[in-house]
Amino acid sequence: MASGALLPVFALMTSLLASLIIFTLPEDRGRVRTLVNIGAALIKLALVAVMIRGVAIGQEYLLAFDMLPGVEFVLRADALAMLFAGLSALLWLLTTIYAIGYLEASPNRSRFFGFFSLCVASTMGIALAGNLFTFFIFYEMLTLSTYPLVVHRGTPKALRAGRNYLIYTLTGGAVLLLGIVCLHGLVGDLRFQEGGHFAGAGPELRGALPWVFFLLVSGLGVKAALVPLHGWLPQAMVAPAPVSALLHAVAVVKAGAFGIVRVVFEVFGLESAQSMGLLSVLVVVASVTILYGSAMALYQVDLKRRLAFSTISQVSYIVLGLCLFGPVGAAGGLVHLVNQGIMKITLFFCAGNYAETLGAHRIDELDGAGKRMPGTSVAFTIAAFGMIGAPPLAGFITKWMLGIGALAEGMDWVVGVLILSSVLNAAYFLPILHRLWFRERTTPWPKEYRWGRLETSVWLFWPPLMTAVMTMAIGVFAAMPFSPLAWVILIVSREVAL
Amino acid sequence: MNAVAPHLLLLSVVLPFGALALALWPGGRFFYRYTLPWLPLPALCLGMLAPDSSLELPWLLNGGLWLVDDLRRTFLVVTALVWSVSGLFAVGYLKRVHQTRFCVFWTLTLAGNLGLIVAADIASFYSFFALMTFAGYGLVVHEGTVDANRAGRIYLAMAVAGEMAILAGLLMSAELADSARLSDLPGAIARSEQRDLIVLLLLAGFGVKAGLPLLHFWLPLAHPVAPTPASAVLSGAMIKAGLLGWMLTLPFGEVSMPVWGNALVLLGVLGALGGAALGLGQRRAKAVLAYSSISQMGLMVLMVGAALAEARQAGTLLAVVALYGLHHGLAKGSLFLSTALALPERRSGRWLLWGLIALPGLSLAGLPFTSGSAAKLAMKDVLAPPDYHFAMASWLPAFMSAGAVATMLLILRFLQVQNQGAARGDNVLCLWLGWAASLLASVLLFWVLPWPESVPDKRWLHEMLAGAWGLTWPMLLAIGSAAVVACLFRQR
């Protein structure tokens, strides 16, 4: 079926093409660049929406050809791919809008938006990749296209963070490649497949597979910022706010987590991964990461740094969910892929707004910001409560599913981890909210800009508000069809074959 | 009414949320505070008039269900009334500074408080509970003083701990019940092997809100520092949310748990007497009242304990607890509002007003022909020792009498402090109106409300006269001992 094969390619090409056009545009053609950026984002969103409708009724979108003998290039739109693709298409649109406002009148915008589009194309490729090799190609492409974004400012600090980022992620990539090659040597080329490949694996494989698993997960764990592989992430927050937003919400960190999901679900299969005892190790790593990230966040005085450590903690909820064996826990983990993305992007948008409008970077500079920037602060408040897991927001859905999943499988201690993490989340978010709303401003802002009638530039004002509304909506309307939760339950029912 | 009830149900919860839109433009902000008294009115109609009805919201969270029944009606009436009269009071009380912020937090807290009463599914109940808790912080720290911020910190820390205990308890029981409905939880908890742990979590979690002794530390700090109308809703309405949480989730009537019953009765007595003892030492009227709330909640905890211990009695007991909550909420709301009233310059007017201020207090102490006397008689009726077999049962009458003496002493202390501390002068109209409405509600409403079927009949005058001595001797004892103490101090 021609259209079936082409849709994923189109989705990929829109951002690739946009990136090429933008690279060739001269710096001063801002209007055209904006048009291309937003146009491409809208087209892609539409394409993904069409595919989501198709996948929901069981349609298959597949493109496959041999790259090398024995190595296939596969693009495939399944339910899991659509979860990630949908998130990335949606947030790309908002982040593009935000970035246009954020980088207004700053140099090198063509370079920035070119790599920005390239980065989103890689994300789309990661979502649609149908086997580990295809996944790897886009995974590395993501590394290379995000580096220029991280060092965009060109300051020594940014360059240092960028170097660190490259060292971490390229090493991770090499380990991942090693794992993929080992697996290829053992069993040949494997497409991702619902239920995994190793349900009936014999003893000759069982000796080697745990090592392969270890290689794959540690390779992916670098981007997913699992402790102790997380060192690059807090430094990378020197990047401009829209980059941090995208990095933390969809692109890099999520690519790692998504890769782990693919490996656990569709290479090994939930049941065989569990029977080989692989998940019991991973669940401990995830729990440690959750608590470590939250505890470290408490000590940060820089807003974006605190958010970065919060990401380390929150992304591991996804991994934790997979390791709970059961369908409910898996659904809880997967839905957090979307939930965390939307909440965290809101927080970074807001952090960017405070920095760009008031010059406030540190948390203690935010006293009284609620009165000066009510819209941004409302968005921040909603997203922060979402992160804490307060009902009825997005984070609560995650936490509830994870908790029920853990209890159903007799892993009661996980509830303790969730509760402790919530308490820590409350401990590092609530004081910020207190400053925003209940402290009086006595000194002038560090560096204030005025933008007419609204509290900040229009481009910066609406994206966080929209994602904040989404944070509420995906919690409150969790039972609606096509809500992230409903979609995730569809995925899990296909993966675990209830 | 049957056809209207579900709409009214929806309106009760949605209206406060809708009012938030007023904060968006300057005209709305100016107008905002005048809406505060009206926002709880649909809920009040629902509580007074609506028959049992329910509303399915399948798209909400993991399947929403809101309903009204006997228990919820009682809570709706007290909550909506206290919020409404306090809202009226707030119109006159609020200052310009941060007025919109106060109104926003007020409305959010109100929405949470009303929502949690009608919610019958776990997720929306917990959502509204959390909304009330966190938005309530905005009311506590509103004044921005050092005291308020300190109280707010402790409030928030304990609230988060409470929320987490509730979350753990709800998670465990929901997993066992395999249901999203609150009504399925008690049965599942009763059958569970982890029953004691779950009961502990829920008791402690909701206990933070209900001012359970040892979990109460935030309460005497937070209730007094809030602006007066907020103190009234904190002590009159929101404190009852913890009580309702217990009633909806704990396995009452499913299984008798004498150990928990004994423990709660003891905690209740500790609260009733200890709260009063600490309250007597307070110098600010609102602090005395806050301790009085702990003391009164102690009496309710005592009844809840008896209900946990004796499954057969649980139904009747809980209905009486709800009535007691109604009586206490209205009286305490009125008392808190009166702390911000200035007393008239003229001596006669001052004494008249002072007497009226005292009325809800005397009602708390059980003055015959007040709501307090009715509640106390109903309580005595259902707590008769022959029906109970747990260890503490035979002590119940003695505890109740001691509680009555303690209450009266505390009220006397309040009246003394109030008289000393109050300003002299006139009040704004809305202050008068709000306080008068609260007084009327406290004194009259109890008599016109339909009495829930499960509660022993109130036998009006006859019963009141027969029970008059039982009701008045603790008061007289308290007055007598207070007089003795006063004389001793004067001689020194």
TrEMBL record, chain B:
Where are its TM segments located? 75-94, 101-119, 125-142, 154-177, 197-219, 231-253, 259-281, 288-308, 314-331, 351-370, 390-415, 427-449, 469-489
- Report which superkingdom the organism of origin falls in: Bacteria
Taking every annotated instance into account, which residue ranges of this chain make up the domain NADH:quinone oxidoreductase/Mrp antiporter transmembrane? 119-344
- Kindly name one Pfam family recorded for this protein: Proton_antipo_M
Its subcellular locations are: Cell membrane; Membrane
Question: Which keywords belong to this entry?
Answer: Cell membrane, Membrane, Oxidoreductase, Transmembrane, Transmembrane helix
Q: How does it sit in the membrane?
A: Multi-pass membrane protein
Q: What is this protein called?
A: NADH:quinone oxidoreductase/Mrp antiporter transmembrane domain-containing protein
Specify the species. Answer: Marinobacter daepoensis
Q: What is the lineage of its organism?
A: Bacteria, Pseudomonadati, Pseudomonadota, Gammaproteobacteria, Pseudomonadales
